[in-house]
Specification:
This protein has 7 helices and no strands. Helices cover 75% and strands 0% of the residues. The termini are far apart. The longest helix is centred in the last third of the chain and has 29 residues. It is mainly alpha-helical and 219 residues long.
Length: 219
């Protein structure tokens, strides 16, 4: 695979990842948000695979494979099982309305893109949009965690942050030592398993997954 083809493919994938992140932050449906998150994680794995094949790096190919298994399949599936175990979705509206959430996300994308235009970042294979997309996805994930009180939506925001960081690591800086990447994936999977284990318990105790109720546990 040539560098030019990999660069064009990664740039196109970065645009699709950004669009999915903006749609995620604007949705109020947990099921749809999980589906979009799985789609974005799949795109992340494909981008990492392109970078790995173009640079002939088995390390990146292994990282992209782990990304697919953990982020595109295991994590969304476990969170979906949490949703299915609940009697009802019990969505908690975000502090920002749907329109405002999308507007803030779009403004963040424009500001980051504008800020990085003066000194464009390019990788060894090109892919000029990688850094701007990665930073914007991280900011959108933070926005979700701050504006949502629904526990599962906050977890999705956390996974968006991780996707943004992984996108930069896989396609811009060509990964980290494999042992560190494996540890990150295991920690991420453990966090999702904890949510899976305690999601239903939280609903049985408080009647919803609104994290506001957790304040009553303080001494």
């Amino acid at each position: 695979m040539s560098y030019e083809f990999a660069s064009d493919a990664i740039d196109l994938i970065s645009v699709a990842m950004l669009v999915l992140a903006i749609v995620v932050v604007g949705t109020r449906s947990i099921g749809l948000a999980l589906l979009l998150l799985a789609g974005q994680s799949l795109l992340l794995a494909i981008a990492g695979m392109h970078a790995g094949v173009a640079t002939e790096s088995w390390h990146l190919i292994a990282g992209a494979t782990l990304t697919f298994v953990v982020k595109a399949v295991a994590a969304p599936l476990l969170l979906w099982l949490v949703v299915q175990r609940l009697p009802a979705s019990h969505d908690v509206p975000a502090s920002l309305g749907q329109g405002w959430s999308i507007l803030v996300a779009i403004l963040a994308a424009l500001v980051v893109s504008r800020s990085l235009t003066a000194e464009p970042f390019t990788t060894a294979i090109g892919a000029e949009r990688v850094l701007a997309t990665a930073v914007t996805v991280v900011l959108i994930g933070i926005q979700m965690m701050v504006t949502h009180r629904q526990a599962l939506m906050q977890v999705i925001g956390f996974l968006l942050i991780e996707n943004g960081m992984a996108f930069a690591a896989l396609t811009a800086f060509y990964g980290m030592p494999f042992v560190i990447e494996l540890g990150i994936f295991l920690d991420l999977l453990l966090a999702v398993i904890v949510v899976f284990a305690y999601g239903q318990r939280m609903h049985l105790t408080f009647g919803s997954l609104d994290t506001h109720h957790l304040r009553s546990l303080r001494g």
